[in-house]
Design goal:
The structure holds two protein chains of two kinds. Chain A is an all-beta fold. Helix content of chain A is about 0%, strand content about 50%. In chain A, a hairpin with a 2-residue loop joins strand 5 and strand 6. The N and C termini of chain A lie far apart (about 30 Å). The chains are: A mainly beta, B mainly beta. At the A-B interface, strand 5, strand 9 and strand 10 of A face strand 6 and strand 10 of B.
Chain lengths: ~110, ~110
């Protein structure tokens, strides 16, 4: 998925540990999104950003923090990992000049909290 | 509020069978509707879209028609292939909003 790069692809954390999921885009989009995907539950929006320095909460922001210091980067931070945060995390950006809702997703970061 | 409901999976079909995956929605305003597909080990990809009532989205042999009267956007394909095995997500965005609301996903397996 050229355009959106997520790291790491896999990570195992212990309860209470912290980590940052990285998302970088090279499409110069103002909008960036973080979703989590739980089995059988679809995707839920965690946080999104409409430009550098501007972020807002989605449906499930608790336990996460974000920052947007540059257009390219939108890291997602877990401060005190909990088993409920075991999930696959996707970063996304809009597809060019497409209509709202047409998103381009990264390959995902699979996080397990034990 | 805004929500999307998909038929529960998993769905298992034989190659060349006809496919329907049901999707209904509840929305304030006038949503755009989407189907996304997720192949094993990959992120989501846009499959097709429709922006207003009676629009038909189509791609790779898949079709879905935006039915405002039944608030539905069912995905269909006339003859599925093994390569269509994936998880399919129905989603909506409200006019002017850059956020998507997803259904829970339907896992499709096609057997040769």
């Amino acid at each position: 998925n050229a355009g959106v790069t997520q790291t790491p692809k896999f990570r195992i954390l212990k309860i209470g540990q912290s980590m940052t999921l990285q998302c970088t885009q090279d499409m110069n989009h103002n909008y960036m999104y973080w979703y989590r995907q739980d089995p059988g539950m679809g995707l839920k929006l965690i946080y999104y950003s409409v430009g550098a320095g501007i972020t807002d909460k989605g449906e499930v922001p608790n336990g996460y923090n974000v920052s947007r210091s540059t257009t390219e980067d939108f890291p997602l931070r877990l401060e005190l990992a909990a088993p409920s945060q075991t999930s696959v995390y996707f970063c996304a950006i809009p597809r060019g000049d497409a209509i709202p809702g047409e998103l381009f997703f990264g390959e995902g970061s699979r996080l397990t909290v034990l | 509020g805004n929500s999307v409901t998909q038929m529960e999976g998993p769905v298992t079909l034989s190659e060349e069978a006809f496919l329907t995956i049901n999707c209904t929605y509840t929305a304030t305003g006038y949503p755009s509707l989407f189907w996304y597909v997720q192949y094993p080990g990959e992120g989501l990809q846009l499959l097709l879209k429709a922006t207003k009532a009676d629009d038909k989205g189509s791609n790779k042999g898949f079709e879905a028609t935006y039915r405002k009267e039944t608030t539905s956007f069912h995905l269909e394909k006339g003859s599925v292939q093994v390569s269509d095995s994936a998880v399919y997500f129905c989603a909506l965005s409200i006019q002017g909003a850059q956020k998507l609301v997803f259904g829970q996903g339907t896992r499709l397996t096609i057997n040769p």
